[in-house]
């Protein structure tokens, strides 16, 4: 039997609530049980013992904002933030929200967020033991925490990723991003087959290779990424399939 998640909306703008209510009505895996217009109402709703599987939560609201509501709730449900601003991504990352929808979003984007919620609902134990990852966003993008802010990086721009001590460096043609995470954690978040571990310290984007010489891959800018001997067989096997 298909999984159906109960859900609630908290948003102070009526047009946003109506949009979410319509999207939920189009989604067979969701059942709306409450739609509220401010966070204090939401706080009282949950304090009264009410529970839902998923909460669609606006950030900027009068009296109590959505992020502060999350900090107050002792056991919040799966949360999908809905906001007109990207400025709250760092807080969203720290609060481990499932997805971060920037208004205006369409039904396709909404559906991808729901799919993430379904996956988290069906495997809560597995999700609990995964180290805090960079925040994933749809299509070819990834949010990573760089210093005190979240930065959006397009996968297609990435040449390679290098592990250095307790952080990794994501290298694009224009910039290098230092991200405080482990290579193992980041490797698990890369969704495309053309990202391949070619060395204990390197993950390479196969689509950005210009040449292979002297046991290394050459990427734009003339940079050489070493290919470890123990990784060569798998590397060439994948290279021949792209």
TrEMBL record:
Stored PROSITE patterns: HTH_LYTTR, RESPONSE_REGULATORY
Keywords, alphabetical: Phosphoprotein
Record has Phosphoprotein as a keyword: yes
Xref: InterPro entries: CheY-like_superfamily (IPR011006), LytR-like (IPR046947), LytTR_DNA-bd_dom (IPR007492), Sig_transdc_resp-reg_receiver (IPR001789)
Alphabetical list of Pfam families matching this protein: LytTR (PF04397), Response_reg (PF00072)
Domain Response regulatory: 6-118
Residues the record lists as 4-aspartylphosphate modifications: 58
Record-annotated HTH LytTR-type domain positions: 142-241
Chain ranges passing through the membrane: none
Protein name from the UniProt record: Response regulator transcription factor
Organism: Hymenobacter terrestris
């Amino acid at each position: 039997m298909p999984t159906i998640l109960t859900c609630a909306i908290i948003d102070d703008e009526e047009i946003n609530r109506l949009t979410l209510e319509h999207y939920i009505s189009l989604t067979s895996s969701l059942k709306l049980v409450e739609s509220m217009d401010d966070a204090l109402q939401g706080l009282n709703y949950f304090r009264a013992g009410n529970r839902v599987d998923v909460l669609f939560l606006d950030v900027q609201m009068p009296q109590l904002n959505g992020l502060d509501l999350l900090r107050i709730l002792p056991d919040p449900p799966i949360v999908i933030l809905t906001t007109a601003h990207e400025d709250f991504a760092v807080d969203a990352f720290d609060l481990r929200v499932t997805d971060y929808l920037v208004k205006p979003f369409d039904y396709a984007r909404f559906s991808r967020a729901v799919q993430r919620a379904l996956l988290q609902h069906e495997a809560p134990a597995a999700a609990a033991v995964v180290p805090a990852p960079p925040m994933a966003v749809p299509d070819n993008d990834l949010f990573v925490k760089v210093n005190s802010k979240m930065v959006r990086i397009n996968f297609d721009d990435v040449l390679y990723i290098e592990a250095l001590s307790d952080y990794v460096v994501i290298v694009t043609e224009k910039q290098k991003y230092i991200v405080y995470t482990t290579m193992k954690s980041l490797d698990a978040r890369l969704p495309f087959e053309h990202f391949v571990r070619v060395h204990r310290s390197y993950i390479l984007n196969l689509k950005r290779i210009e040449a292979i010489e002297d046991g290394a891959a050459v990427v734009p800018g003339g940079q050489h990424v070493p290919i470890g001997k123990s990784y060569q067989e798998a590397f060439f096997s994948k290279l021949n399939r792209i």
